[in-house]
Design goal:
Elements lengths: L4 E2 L8 E2 L6 E2 L11 H14 L5 E5 H4 L1 H7 L6 E3 L7 H5 L10 H10 L5 E3 L5 E4 L5 H5 L7
């Protein structure tokens, strides 16, 4: 029993009024979204504090692909997000986060961060293992995807 995973989610303070389609932001005057550095600190501290939770997941759609890649080096061991179009947090944030990535895009993100991607089920049982980072690709710095 117990928890399988902890997922630090980025606070989204905007919402769209369904009546007129306009963005309403009641808290923006008093709050701000976490920066990438603050998010990475959250992942690192989460890994330390939740030592009894086996996995820390980064939701790339909410944090963006650059922060998601870095989160893998700051305590996260699982990257998740829709492989098809995802509009909820994409429409709410103002950071230009992509709302879709293909399987190969996700595999490249993980490899470019220096890790070997694996496909797993909800119980964290490995279903498929993919090749690790490409040494030739790692010799020259790869641009972070935006």
């Amino acid at each position: 029993g117990g928890f399988q995973v902890f997922i630090p989610l980025r606070y989204q303070h905007d919402f769209v009024d369904m009546k007129d389609g306009k963005v309403r932001n009641k808290l923006q005057a008093r709050t701000t979204m976490a920066t990438g550095a603050e998010a990475l600190k959250t992942f690192a501290v989460s890994r330390l504090l939740f030592d009894n939770v086996p996995h820390v997941k980064v939701f790339w759609v909410m944090h963006g692909v650059q922060t998601a890649q870095l989160a893998l080096q700051h305590g996260a061991d699982d990257m998740d997000g829709s492989v098809v179009e995802y509009k909820i947090t994409h429409d709410a944030d103002d950071f230009g986060t992509p709302n879709k990535l293909g399987r190969e895009d996700l595999l490249d993100l993980i490899r470019d961060a220096g890790f070997r991607p694996v496909e797993r089920n909800t119980r964290y049982e490995i279903l498929r293992e993919y090749p690790g980072p490409d040494a030739d690709r790692r010799e020259s710095p790869q641009p972070m995807r935006v």
